Amino acid sequence: MSLTSKQRAFLKAEAHHMKPIIQIGKNGLNNEIKTSIRNALDARELIKVTLLQNTDENIHDVAETLEEEIGLDTVQKIGRILILFKPSAKKENRKLSIKVREV
C-alpha cells in the first residue's frame, strides 16, 4: 500500500508525540530486530525506530530493507529516526489504518 501525501501527513502528525520503541545498535539490523518490528507493527500499526550512534547502518538502507522484507511503508526519515506504518494483520488492532483510509 503506497501512501498519499495527505495520508503521510496524517501519520506524521499521529507519530509526532510518540517515543521510539525499537533501537538499532552496534549489531545492526538483525533478525531479532526485524521480528520486534513486525510484532510492534502488528500491535500498533505506527512505530518509531531509532538508529543509535554506534551503528554502522545507513538509515536509507535500513528503510529500504524493511520495506522489501516486511512490506511496510516508511512515513518519514528524520536524522536517525524512522517512522514506519503497516496495517495490522489482526482485525482488533486496526484502528489507525481505518483512519488512514478515510483521509
UniProtKB/TrEMBL annotation:
Residues of the CRM domain: 1-97
Tagged with keyword RNA-binding: yes
Ranges annotated as spanning the membrane: none
Pfam families linked to this entry: CRS1_YhbY
InterPro entries: RNA-binding_CRM, RNA-binding_domain, RNA-binding_YhbY, YhbY-like_sf
GO MF: RNA binding
Sorted UniProt keywords: RNA-binding
PANTHER family reported for this sequence: RNA-BINDING PROTEIN YHBY
Protein name: Ribosome assembly RNA-binding protein YhbY
